[in-house]
Amino acid sequence: MSTFSDNVRKIVTAIPYGKVMSYGQVAALAGNPRSSRVVGWVMHANDDYRKLPCYRVVFKDGSLPEGYVFGGAEVQRNLLAAEGVTFTPDGKVDLALHSAIS
After folding, report:
1. How far is the C-alpha of 73 from the C-alpha of 64, rounded, in Å?
2. Is the whole-model pTM more than 0.85?
3. Is residue 36 domain-resident?
């Protein structure tokens, strides 16, 4: 039987290149829409962003968490930009263009 954390990892691994999802969207797809903080803990425990692209998970408004595990929001922003993700003038991911869920 899969655990919630296993489901989170599967969902995040499947986020397409150049797309993002919010913590809440991941939690809902993993089976518990009220567990966005748990999604954050699963992402924080990740030790290799190449295997689990946790940098593709953002806040629901497109902002980036300051405590990104691999070096802060600027590192996360650079990883997303390298995939062609664009940002609004206030520094948030342009969710209209890059949300994995319409």
Report:
1. 6
2. yes
3. yes
